[in-house]
Amino acid sequence: MSYDLTIATREKPIQLYLQEFAAARSGLTYEGRLGEEFSNVIITVRDKPGLDAFVELYSPVRAIESEDIDEGLAALVTPPCWLTELGVPGFTKRGIEVAKELARHIAERCQGAVLDPQVGSVIWAVSPPEPPQSRSKDERIREVNLEWYLPPSRAAPDTGLIFLATLRRHCQEAVPVRLGKFEPLQGRLESSRDEPFFAAWSDTGRDPLGMLILKSKAPCFGGSIHLPGSRPLRAGDRPVTKISLEFDGRIVCTHESWREKVVNLFAELSRALGAFYGRGYVLRNIIASRGGPVFDGKSESYPSASIRGSWCGIPPTPAWLLWFGGPYTPLVRDALEGVQRIESSAGTFVRLGIEPLDLDQLRTVGFNLPDRLMAKHESRPAIKLPDGREAKILGAEVKPAEFIPELS
After folding, report:
1. How does pLDDT run across 57-67, given as a tens digit for each residue?
2. pLDDT digits over 229-267, tens only?
3. Alpha-carbon gap, residue 289 to 379, rounded angstroms
């Protein structure tokens, strides 16, 4: 967890400005080079006895459209522009002071402005907007998430072909229009050209992180693709391919046609992708912002079924939609006796209610799967910030299930 700042600038920040900043302040050292793709600079602060601090400065990325950046920044620095992120691990007081000074220095040199996401507003700008523009009010909404978990053998680009083809048949709005490894997304997918998607999929498979972010058309926010990637396997790892899509609950939870469209898409993709597990669930208190859904300490989160790309077992948290395929089909058959379901040669589809059900509603209609198949989750304690506020850490500690079948 870190204290973050975002700088939007008309000119691209370069290494020289970091050198200027460090030279003018005693006790600052840095390692890394600004400007190299996917790189970051670690700044060490030792200018006061006993007060070591660290600041991370990430290389600038191009923001192409106004939706790529915060409204307050967009009012001051019109895209296309450059976005540079700073982070202070651990929220150290001295680290935050240095980060703010550095952010202002870069904004001054490159004609820009600095956003503090913690307070949700611009804290410094080279020139105020004329006339001032009002920000749109953020809304708390429900989000319907769909997830599919596939064996590592399904990580090949051919799976991407099946994914796109199924989206086009059953939900055109969910077809990605932008994609990339980081925000703001740098790639585009035109309706008549799929090559950028397959190139990005292949590149993601060679990347240690193995993550590709997707943005789609309303009411689909987008999603992500997590591939095993090129990271070395550790003892006990069970590599898994994960695909997810996120939908605006203001539409899916209130319009029958869209609800059924999303349910049908979940079942069709489960079969087409060869998923061994899938789930659809409702998250509450998500912030609907212009650039897409945003999470904070009030937002609900579901523990993941995988950690660092390794399958941990079926999550114990109940879900509205469920899919059991591959080796899990026979393992859960007895537990599903008496549960309304649709069985096929590809797997078993379970829907626990007509309407999308949230976590509280599911507690009254759920069922018990074999305990030995379930991952174990332990909630993370809240932490104290330097200003005395308490911050909730999203998610949970995940421990593997007692028994995990062969996935390949």
Report:
1. 988 988 888 77
2. 888 888 888 999 999 999 999 999 999 999 999 999 999
3. 27
* 366-404 pLDDT per residue, tens: 789 999 999 987 765 555 555 565 555 444 567 899 999
Torsion of CA 352, 355, 358, 360, to 10 degrees: -70
Q: Supply the DSSP string of 352-395, one letter for each residue.
A: --SSPP-HHHHTTT-----GGGB-EEEEPPPEE-TTS-EEPPPS
Consecutive H or E run containing 343: strand 341-343
Where exactly are the structural domains of the chain?
2-125, 139-399
> What does the alpha-carbon distance between residue 242 and residue 220 come to, in Å, rounded to a whole number?
18
Alpha carbon distance 212, 254 (integer Å): 30
Q: Which of 188, 199, 8, 230 is nearest to 107 (CA)?
A: 8
Average pLDDT over residues 3-9: 93
d(CA 380, CA 357): 25
> Given this model, what pLDDT does residue 361 score?
93
What residue spans of 274-383 are helical by DSSP H? 328-332, 359-362
Between 171 and 291, name the one with better pLDDT: 171
pLDDT of residue 146: 98
Backbone phi, then psi, for 134, in 5-degree steps? -80, 145
How far apart (Å, rounded) are the C-alpha atoms in residues 81 and 259? 38
| Cβ contact 60:184 at 8 Å | no
CATH architecture of the domain covering 2-125? 2-Layer Sandwich (3.30)
Q: How far apart are CA 277 and CA 161, in angstroms?
A: 20
Q: What is the pLDDT of residues 95-106, one digit of tens each?
A: 999 999 999 999
Contacts of 32 (CB under 8 A, 6+ apart): 39, 40, 41, 42, 57
Which pLDDT belongs to residue 1? 63
DSSP 8-state class, residue 182 = S
How far, in Å, are 316, 340, 368, 400, 404 from residue 371 at the CA level? 9, 21, 8, 12, 11
Phi, psi values for residue 196, rounded to 5°: -60, -35
